[in-house]
Design a protein that fits this description.
- The structure is a single chain.
- Helices cover 40% and strands 19% of the residues.
- The chain is an alpha/beta fold.
- The protein has a single domain (2-160), classed as Phosphoglycerate mutase-like (Rossmann fold, 3-Layer(aba) Sandwich), CATH 3.40.50.
- α1 (25-41) runs parallel beside α3.
- It is globular.
- The relative contact order is 0.23.
- InterPro entries: His_Pase_superF_clade-1, His_PPase_superfam, SixA.
């Protein structure tokens, strides 16, 4: 079994171009709280092997850095996880790259909601609503449609009150 942590970036300010939008102070606070939560939640063996992979968009990169800091990890950029990217190349990537390595993906709606829906429910139309900085923890033997189990759902709202 391997673990996949799917995270939506923290709250971002409006603006154009979309790829350059930055986190708000609230988004930084959400991301920092989630980084602390994940650091406290992960077993040592998972923490030492965790890969953090983020969309190239500024707000996802900023969120991923807030996640990486308490974990002592670096952030990798994955160009195929921007908001409107199709799921199939990402699922292929997961099968190759996340089969035996725990991975935190930091991306955007609608991609993160659709990915959770596809991996857990197996339906192309399934999607989960994901508030900013929320993490869905999935577990699977293989990353394919309908093959994952949703193990945990954590929102920063529960941590910040």
């Amino acid at each position: 079994m391997s673990n996949l942590y799917i995270m939506r970036h923290g709250e971002a300010a409006p603006g154009m171009p979309d790829s350059e939008r930055s986190l708000t102070k609230q988004g930084e606070m959400e991301s920092r709280a989630m980084g602390t939560w994940l650091d406290n939640m992960l077993a040592n063996d998972v923490r030492t092997t965790l890969r953090i992979v983020a969309s190239p968009y500024r707000r996802a990169q900023q969120t991923a850095q807030w996640m990486a800091t308490p974990l002592g990890c670096s952030v990798e950029t994955l160009p195929i996880i921007t908001p409107e990217d199709p799921l199939e190349p990402l699922i292929d990537w997961l099968q190759q790259e996340a089969a035996h390595t725990p991975c935190l993906l930091v991306s955007h709606m609608p991609l993160v909601g659709a990915l959770v829906g596809r991996l857990v429910e197996g339906d192309m139309r399934a999607s989960q609503p994901m508030p900013t900085a929320t993490i869905a923890t999935l577990e699977a033997d293989i990353w394919a449609a309908g093959c994952a189990t949703l193990k945990h759902w954590q929102s920063p709202r529960e941590l910040l009150g």
